[in-house]
Specification:
The structure holds 2 protein chains of 2 kinds. By secondary structure, chain A is mainly alpha-helical. Helices cover 73% and strands 0% of the residues of chain A. Chain A contains 14 helices and no strands. Chain A is globular, with a radius of gyration of 24 Å. By secondary structure, chain B is of the alpha/beta class. Chain B is built from 12 helices and 12 strands. In chain B, the strands form 2 sheets. In chain B, strands 6-7-8-3-9-10-12-11 form an 8-stranded mixed sheet. In chain B, strands 2-1-4-5 form a 4-stranded antiparallel sheet, with no helix packed on it. In chain B, a hairpin with a 2-residue loop joins β1 and β2. In chain B, α4 crosses α5, α5 crosses α7 and α7 packs parallel to α8. The two termini of chain B are 25 Å apart. The model of chain B has no long low-confidence stretch (mean pLDDT 89). The chains are: A mainly alpha, B alpha/beta. The interface between A and B is medium-sized, with 23 and 32 residues.
Chain lengths: 314, 348
């Protein structure tokens, strides 16, 4: 088990390295005009060159990336170059972390709880009214672009629940819509997987044996079906963090929540490289950590994985 | 046959299924007596209804199936009329148990062997904790699992196919049932293991004195283990009798065909006999003898009227018009005569 978890940890770190490097290089491919914003036309060539030189953008790319990782190892993520000039990156991000974490945690919990419950409900009434209703919901959420229904939630939600259109940290009711928006996709995903795994288990032979033993339907559901369906579900549970993180990027800017997601959209547009890099590092760490935890959870639940010590069973 | 009053008595059982709005009659009036301590084999081709028939003794028909008419008398009660799961749960695993075909999938992969046995002990015998554990270990060693002390803490994937089937048998046996139904218990196992499992069931039967029903299409297994045989075709029991009667003096044309399709030891370079045609579609009502369209020697009446049960001996009944006094005498096919001749030689 220890060997397995260390191996998966090493793999996760490699993944993280690749993601961060890719983001770093992509930022360097953007046109240099972006670094000057509206001031582009007013500056002379030599002024522009001086600014770029100061940001270190005229050095070869491998020197730039070497500098970035050297700083990272010393815990220095650099300073903001454009968004809030010369302020350390961490100082810019720090006040925004609590908002994102709070929204992320609440939305994740909500999608796990409601998604699993919906999945069980669907299995219970398989092929009947509720199963079909929730399936329609899942199909809708997964096929319609999220921007469309998220706008509808914002539009009609405000009048329906009498809550503010935008986030206001002094009014707790303004939390409702962003949390619902973040959870909508997660709930659908969990419900779909939960139903699928439970139906899978229900059709297995050992359920027949359990019935032949004389167990009641509810005992079979709780002791056998649900317990076994949670094992493949376990790897999706922390992955929800990933889904919420990616969802938050759009939703935070939609509701003007002063979190990290909204900030990321902002700084990518303004090409503040150190901030983009730092935020991507944080977001991908959280996501990769989620996947890692998912694998560990599954290994902990499934005795077959411990023994073989391979991840082939995924 | 130790006693004359049957332990389980099925009369004119009709079981129907609803499949997408169409009604299929899977069991069309089957009657059967099961006597204490005996081993009964139910044979028949796929789809003849042998599994459905025995599943109805446990109330384990699929959701879309129901007992339409007929009775199943067990311990003085008509269990065919049981509606609630609570009533059935007093029988399942306690009075009547079942061993399934495929031991690789019959056990929950995520619970230890011990827990899966204890579950049934807790349910029916009220054992718990250490008592249940000890009882489970005891049962494991009884079904021939060495080192049961450590094995009971292991998971199914740590067992071979044969060992898993022993565990399934242990679960079925745990509460000392009256009847053990074995639904093709050896089909998924290789030949050497098959023999071991059959021996085990036989040994347990003489130790615990339960009654066994084998469901199989392996006539070799039947000859090996059974006292009596019932042949099923299209949802009816068309012939039943002792093993000797069935193998050496079969009377129904379907039994002839079935036995003719057995490979004979010592006969080489000859194509195996195959029964032509397919069984009737049970979505439609069957007129006359269900086997008539596949029977080259069918009588005219076979297409018109359903035959009743004719008795050949007190233990041997056949559902075929051939046994009627007015029917022309029909010689059994050569393969059956050869079997009979072999048997008579061995008797002398």
């Amino acid at each position: 088990m220890l060997k397995y978890s260390l191996k998966r940890l090493a793999q996760s770190l490699v993944t993280l390295l690749i993601v961060v490097t890719a983001v770093f290089l992509l930022m360097r491919l953007l046109p240099i005009e972006g670094y000057f914003g509206d001031a582009f036309d007013k500056l002379t060539e030599s002024q522009k060159e001086a600014i770029l030189n100061k940001m270190g953008l005229l050095d070869p790319w491998y020197e730039q990336i070497g500098r970035f990782y050297k700083g990272l190892l010393q815990g220095d993520l650099g300073t903001s170059t454009i968004y809030r000039k010369d302020v350390p990156v961490l100082e810019v991000i720090a006040p925004r972390v609590p908002y994102s974490v709070r929204f992320g945690v609440v939305a994740t919990l909500m999608s796990i709880i409601m998604g699993l419950a919906m999945g069980m409900h669907m299995t219970r009434y398989k092929g009947r009214f509720w199963d079909k209703t929730w399936t329609a919901y899942i199909v809708f959420v997964s096929s319609v672009p999220s921007a469309v229904y998220l706008l509808f939630v914002q539009l009609y939600g405000t009048s329906l629940f009498k809550v503010p259109l935008l986030f206001d940290k002094y009014r707790p009711s303004s939390w409702i819509l962003p949390v619902i928006s973040m959870a909508i996709v997660g709930i659908a995903g969990y419900a779909m997987w939960m139903r699928r795994y439970m139906v899978d288990e229900l059709n297995k032979d050992y359920i027949k044996l359990a019935r032949a033993k004389g167990l009641s339907d509810s005992a079979i559901m709780i002791k056998h079906v649900m317990r076994n369906a949670y094992v493949p579900m376990a790897q999706y549970l922390p992955a929800a963090i990933l889904a919420t993180v990616s969802g938050s990027i759009y939703i935070e800017s939609l509701y003007s929540i002063p979190g990290m997601g909204g900030l990321l959209v902002d700084v990518i547009q303004r090409q503040d490289n150190p901030l983009v890099q730092a935020l991507c590092l944080i977001f991908s760490s959280v996501g990769i950590l989620g996947l890692y935890l998912g694998d560990l959870l599954m290994a902990a639940f499934d005795p077959r994985i411990k023994l073989t010590k391979t991840e082939g069973a995924r | 046959m130790a006693s004359t009053t049957p332990l389980l008595s099925v009369r004119d059982l009709v079981i129907k299924f609803n499949l997408r709005g169409q009604v299929l009659t899977a069991i069309r009036g089957a009657s059967l007596d099961l006597y204490e301590g005996e081993t009964l084999a139910i044979v028949g081709e796929s789809g003849s209804g042998k599994s459905v028939f025995t599943k109805s003794f446990l109330g384990m028909l699929d959701q879309n199936g129901w007992v339409d008419s007929g009775s199943i008398m067990f311990e003085g009660k008509d269990i065919a009329g049981y509606k609630s799961q609570d009533e059935w749960r007093r029988i399942r695993g306690k009075k009547i148990s079942m061993v399934f075909q495929d031991p690789m999938t019959a056990l929950n992969p995520l619970r230890t062997i011990g827990k899966q046995i204890e579950e049934v002990l807790e349910l029916h015998q009220g054992l718990s904790g250490k008592h249940a554990t000890l009882a489970a270990i005891d049962i494991l060693s009884k079904v021939g699992i060495p080192d049961a002390q450590t094995r009971h803490k292991q998971y199914p994937h740590e067992f071979s196919g044969g060992m898993r089937q022993r565990v399934v048998i242990a679960i079925a046996m745990a509460c000392k049932p009256k009847i053990l139904i074995c639904d093709e218990p050896t089909t998924a196992l290789d030949v050497t293991i098959q023999a071991q499992i059959l021996d085990l069931i036989r040994a347990l039967q003489s130790d615990f004195g339960f009654t066994t029903i084998y469901i199989t299409h392996d006539l070799g297994v039947v000859a090996n283990v059974a006292d009596r045989v019932a042949v099923m075709y299209a949802g009816q029991i068309i012939e039943q009798g002792t093993v000797e009667e069935l193998f050496y003096d079969p009377r129904h044309p379907y039994s002839w065909a079935l036995l003719s399709s057995l490979p004979q030891l010592g006969i080489k370079h000859e194509a195996l006999y195959a029964i032509k045609g397919t069984p009737p579609n049970l979505f439609n009502p069957v007129q006359g003898d269900a086997f008539a369209p596949r029977n080259p020697n069918a009588l005219n009446i076979d297409f018109l009227l359903e035959p009743p049960d004719f008795s050949v001996s007190p233990t041997h009944t056949v559902r075929s018009w051939l046994l009627d006094g007015r029917a022309p005498r029909l010689e059994p096919p050569p393969a059956i005569k050869a079997l009979k001749a072999k048997y008579e030689r061995s008797e002398q």
